[in-house]
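Handout, section B. The chain below has 173 residues.
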Amino acid sequence: MSRILLADDSAQALRLAEQILTSQGIQVVSVTDGAVALRRLADVNPDLLITDVFLPTKSGFDLARFIKSQPEYRHIPIVFAAAPVDKFEEQDAKNAGADVILRKPFEASALLTAVQPLLERSKAARNGDGARALFDRKTVRAAVTLALDAAMPSLIDELTERVMLALANQVNR
């Protein structure tokens, strides 16, 4: 299963992209800040990064330059997402490492048309270099992180109920 790290500070853009991608069986980890995206790279070990051009703390340009400068991440394709009002030079984005530039709001067919070949290229690069075993530490860590991300809301609900029961028992004593 493919994994995408999605970095965008627009809640609407995140929801739309998540819906489109997860409907295709793609795992998506979303963040709203560039520095958080950098921290999550090792945990998520994505097959693709979709990043807003302008993010808090670190921009899409910063993320792309970092990824392309690191041997362990260099294979990750990058899609820049830009609002219609975002002003930037597309050549600068390409020079920073963007493979594709998409305008928001995302149209499902345009997003999937851009993402599918990049995911295939990323998987081929991972498999072709022989450096990544099927069950290496990064892969297992990424799978555990994704499972925890998915389970977190129900864990929070369950823990909240248990704490509320314990507090109620203390009050009733």
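Note. Residues 3-132 form a domain with the Rossmann fold fold (CATH 3.40.50.2300). Compare this with the example in section A.
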